[in-house]
Specification:
heterodimer; A: 636 residues; alpha+beta; Flavocytochrome C3, Chain A, domain 1; Methane Monooxygenase Hydroxylase, Chain G, domain 1; five-stranded parallel sheet; five-stranded antiparallel sheet; 17 helices; 19 strands; 15% strand; globular; B: 256 residues; Ubiquitin-like (UB roll); Fumarate Reductase Iron-sulfur Protein, Chain B, domain 2; five-stranded mixed sheet; 8 helices; 7 strands; binds flavin-adenine dinucleotide
């Protein structure tokens, strides 16, 4: 069993972070340059961390498998970023953002972390504006806001439907400045394939140069993982094609606990699946739910075109069931309800899609105003589907989207392996069992700009500046295991492609470990995943060589990890005999069909320790709610 | 969304590595009109892999037209014939049954071919490192609403900032000029108060590195704007030229 100490500072929640910052040990400015820090990942979390640590004077090595830091998956975020600025004078506050996030997460997040997140949210917006991020503005020149699911205030800052792009380019700019100044060295087209642990502490990584296939050893006094989420385990998801769980999983195998893998978010507003060859699911920003109304026919199997279904025969099911929040209920609630109406055969043409209709908004604010807010999303929809959403209501369906689970971290964002820090979507820390819209960008940048620069100093202040020797046995052993894996994958020479097996895994997971789960289904899934894993190691075909650019080999390594991780995901879902947020167990629901949490037994973080393939041991971090009273989430 | 598949003749550029001689491989491929061109390549690759053959190397990531990874040329057009569309969002319904498609990497002296359809665009990063930022350290920023910015300027700045760094502009230009790419970044900052302190140093630093990295000069043919998947306007080039000449004309430092 792992001993999990959250290291949450004492004191009133509103003062914890400021008191802690004051009491931290500091590394003096002249000593900082003696410390090397490895940052893996250059998305919002990684780029902001690497840039800021460089500014502070540390020597930073930043790694990404992309050709350029700017291509990280964060670039694709559309809708916006939250902050408690209260610029709209609508009674927002740090406390309300804290409250909304804890409640939205269905009381499965650590209060102190969430409060700090809300507290630094305002600094993020200041920082980004200073970097020249061109946020949307009002005619008077002040910043504009929109509202997002799970909140009753307007606190979301945005740049058209390209907020992630603009925020990432801001962080990329700051990173570039540090590269130019020589404080950060960038290693692109490198994939981290192992973590090196020396005397129980994280001291380096092994990477594969994706152009040449060579392995490299990199040593440092601390390793920061900002490697993103694991939702591509489902094969079809909204994540970028190359997003994967390998960095997290390999760190897990070296001792880092994996927390709450079963907390997965299925996003309600994505384009429906079109066919066999489909490679990923496209998200339509949920900001669309601000002005679009979601409905299906009241009749099952209704094949009439939408304009021939009269108002009286439409069911605006979210507005009907949740009058207070209507179409703005949190994601898990919106997704599950879409599944239910489609299960009843009431989806579009009886299939798996529901309407997202802007007719009312066109009347209320006019087509031009809708275009100003969502123009690029409407264009994207038309481009992909060939249907004009200004004329015909959009069709949407939920898709795997965001991983709330991730590597376990304490208040310092340090894992249970000393010296290994985890930021952004890769950690589990702030969203509990469900993430609110526009809060991932906030968390990534909070972690990178405003948390890690402090907490890593507190760790390094007690470390000696000597680096671990890359010639040591630990480095050599890790490098050898990476090389052996590559050799093994190339030697199988079976009959199935990597993608074919990944697709099979995805189907098992979405069916049995998706929006709705049962004990029986989860047990079946675990068995099927084990069988698939065996099938993979006997029958996969990985063409090409190891000492060259080989994209098949890259994918094979990632899928091999998914085949282990997928089992843990199902096991965690099986262990959690309750429904909360994105984790819905059919056995645990209220008579009205809402999620039934079981706080007496499950108000804990499930942190899993790796004990060999298919073997894991559970440790628990109990969650205490001293500021916000545990209550049933209600959006009625 | 329909089931009528079409069949295309594909001529795809194959080149083992940067020093190897390249050639076109030919494939007949049946494809759904709802697939994107990259999903079609996925299918070709799946077949190749199943036969034990080396798949076509090409890059992509977000498949939503925003990460800028998927640069390839279709029938001579970077990102294909459809205006304002990245390759990943180019759907096969835009092609006719029986058509022949030539699929090649972005061609430019500054973009060396790495393998098949993958090129090296690291020159873009080098240009950005030279000055594509404002020099604010984390934590030093004033309140975000302290400086009002007109909606017009903020919108124009965002129009420029939407550049996805794919390199289509360079591939489209007969001189392989990167002026559209560089001017988009220069303009984003020139239009904002936060960009003023370093405005003239920035433009000079970025242009210098651009020239050092084998990008050619601009002769105003506007092919770049026509092929840009984000429709970045050549008016950014004019804005950059003004700033650049203003900076160069006065030998000493220019006031912002
Ligand atoms: C389509 C879409 C829209 C979204 N919209 C919003 C939104 O509007 N608001 C919001 O708040 N959130 C949104 N999200 C969620 C949000 O974008 C992500 O959670 C967030 O950007 C993750 O950032 P990150 O820095 O943690 O990781 P990422 O941006 O995923 O970056 C991961 C980085 O790690 C690197 N990496 C990973 N593994 C390795 C390895 N083994 N070796 C080397 N490098 C590695 C990658 O190269 C990359 O640089 C959206 C997500 C999607 C999919």
């Amino acid at each position: 069993m792992i001993k999990l100490n959250s290291n949450v500072p004492e004191g009133n929640i509103t003062e914890k972070w400021s008191n802690y910052k004051f009491s931290m040990k500091l590394v003096n400015p002249a000593n900082k340059r003696k410390f090397d820090i490895i940052v893996v990942g250059t998305g919002l979390a990684g780029a902001s961390a690497a840039a800021t640590l460089g500014e502070l004077g540390y020597k930073v090595k930043a790694f990404t498998y992309h050709d350029s830091p700017r291509r990280a998956h964060s670039i694709a975020a559309q809708g916006g970023i939250n902050a408690a600025k209260n610029y709209q004078n609508d009674a927002d506050s740090v406390y309300r953002l804290f409250y909304d996030t804890v409640k939205g997460g269905d009381f499965r997040a650590r209060e102190a972390n969430v409060y700090r997140l809300a507290e630094v949210s305002n600094n993020i917006i200041d920082q980004c504006v200073a970097q020249g991020v061109p946020f949307a503005r009002e005619y008077g020149g002040t910043l504009a806001n929109r509202s997002f699911g799970g909140a009753q205030v307007s606190r979301t800052f945005y740049a058209r439907g390209e907020t992630g792009q603009q925020l990432l380019l801001g962080a990329y700019g700051s990173l570039n400045r540090q590269i130019h100044l020589g404080n950060v060295e960038i290693f692109s087209r490198r994939e981290m394939l192992d973590l090196v642990v020396v005397d129980g502490k994280a001291k380096g990584i092994i990477v594969r140069n994706l152009l040449t296939g060579e392995t490299e050893r990199h040593s440092a006094q601390a390793v920061v993982l900002a490697t993103g989420g694991y939702m591509n385990v489902y094969y079809l998801s909204t994540n970028a094609m190359n997003s994967n769980a390998t960095a997290s999983w390999r760190a897990h195998k070296r001792g880092a606990a994996f927390a709450n893998p079963a907390y997965t978010q299925i996003h309600p507003t994505c384009l429906p699946v079109h066919g066999e060859a489909q490679s990923k699911l496209v998200l339509m920003s949920e900001s669309l739910r601000n002005d679009g109304r979601i409905w299906v026919s009241k009749k099952a199997g209704d094949t009439r075109p939408p304009d021939q279904i009269p108002e009286s025969e439409r069911d605006y099911y979210l507005e009907r069931k949740y009058p207070a929040f209507g179409n703005l209920v949190p994601r898990d609630v919106a997704s599950r309800n879409a599944k239910y109406v489609c299960d009843e055969g009431r989806g579009v043409n009886g299939g798996r899609a529901v309407y997202l209709d802007f007719a009312e908004a066109f009347n209320r604010i006019g087509k031009d105003a809708v275009k100003d807010r969502y123009g690029n999303l409407f264009d994207m929809y038309q481009n992909i589907t060939g249907v004009d959403p200004y004329e015909v209501p959009m069709q949407i369906y939920p898709a795997p989207h965001y991983a709330m689970g991730g590597l376990w971290v304490d208040y310092n964002l340090m894992s249970n392996v000393p010296g290994l820090f985890v930021l952004g979507e890769a950690n589990f820390s702030d969203h509990g069992a469900n993430r609110l819209g526009a809060s991932a960008l906030m968390q990534g940048l909070a972690d990178g700009y405003f948390v890690i620069p402090y907490t890593i100093g507190n760790y390094l202040a007690t470390e000696k500046p000597e680096k671990a020797n890359p010639e040591s046995s630990e480095f050599k052993e890790a490098e050898k295991s990476v090389r052996d894996d590559v050799k093994k994958l190339l030697s199988i020479n079976g009959k199935q492609t990597v993608d074919a097996i990944h697709k099979k895994l995805g189907l098992v997971l979405i069916d049995k470990v998706g929006m709705s789960r049962t004990e029986k289904g989860l047990n079946e899934a675990i068995k099927q995943i084990r069988d698939l894993r065996e099938e993979f190691w006997k029958d996969v075909k990985v063409v090409g060589k190891g000492e060259e650019l080989n994209q098949t080999l890259e994918r094979a390594g990632r899928v091999a990890d998914y085949l282990q991780f997928g089992e843990l995901l199902a096991k965690d879902a099986l262990n959690r005999n309750e429904s909360c947020g994105g984790h819905f167990r059919e056995e645990y629901q209220t008579p009205e069909g809402e999620a039934l949490r079981r706080d007496d037994e499950y108000a804990y973080v499930a942190a899993w320790e790796y004990k060999g393939p298919g073997e894991s041991e559970l440790s628990k971090e109990n969650l205490e709610f001293t500021n916000i009273k545990l209550a049933t989430r209600s959006y009625k | 969304m329909s089931d009528n598949h079409i069949t295309l003749k594909l001529k795809i550029w194959r080149q083992e590595n940067k020093n190897a001689k390249g050639h076109f491989d030919e494939f007949n491929q049946k494809v759904s009109p709802d697939s994107s061109i990259l999903e079609m390549l996925d299918e070709v690759n799946n077949k190749l892999e199943a036969e034990g053959k080396i798949p076509i190397a090409f890059e992509s990531d977000c498949r939503e037209g925003i990460c800028g990874t998927c640069g390839l040329a279709v029938n001579g057009h970077p990102h294909g014939p459809l205006p304002k569309t990245a390759t990943c969002q180019l759907h096969m319904r835009n092609f006719k049954d029986g058509e022949t498609l030539y699929i090649e990497p972005f061609r430019a002296a500054a973009f060396q071919v790495i393998k098949d359809l993958i090129v090296d665009r690291s020159g873009f990063d080098k240009i950005q490192q030279a000055g594509g930022y404002t020099s604010f350290n984390t934590g030093s920023a004033p309140d975000a609403n302290a400086i009002p910015i007109s909606k017009t300027n903020a919108d124009l700045s965002l129009d420029a900032a939407e550049c996805i760094g794919c390199g289509a502009c360079v591939a489209a230009c007969k001189n392989s000029s990167a002026m559209l790419f560089v001017s988009a970044k220069v303009s984003q900052f020139a239009l904002l108060p936060q960009g003023q302190p370093e405005r003239y140093d920035r433009v000079q630093a970025m242009v210098k590195v651009m020239d050092e990295n084998f990008f050619g000069s601009c002769t105003n043919t506007y092919a770049c704007e026509a092929e840009c998947p984000k429709g970045i306007s050549v008016s950014n080039i004019a804005r950059m030229n003004r700033d650049y000449f203003k900076a160069k004309l006065c030998e000493e430092k220019v006031e912002g």
